[in-house]
Amino acid sequence: MMNRLASTAVLTTALIGSLLLGSPLRVQAIDRDDKCEKRIHKAEDNLRDAERKHGDHSRQAQQRRRQLEEERERCHHGHDRDHDRH
Q1: What pLDDT does 83 receive?
Q2: How many CA atoms lie within 13 A of 36 on its CB side?
Q3: Domain span holding position 53
């Protein structure tokens, strides 16, 4: 009976510890995902504005497309890094 209680206590402590240590990482990842989404949406808005003001094939629109792709890549690579840690 005592062995079982000790085992349960150790497992409970380990579980609580892993939950407490794992939670900040998940919160950081969610926060990073939200920031990525906002940057991507901003880049999409900038592209639409450039297309409307200067035309679809303008130098400004091409630059905004590159910036949008860079944001998407940056977020994608950051997302991969988060998964590599776990």
Answers
A1: 47
A2: 17
A3: 26-85
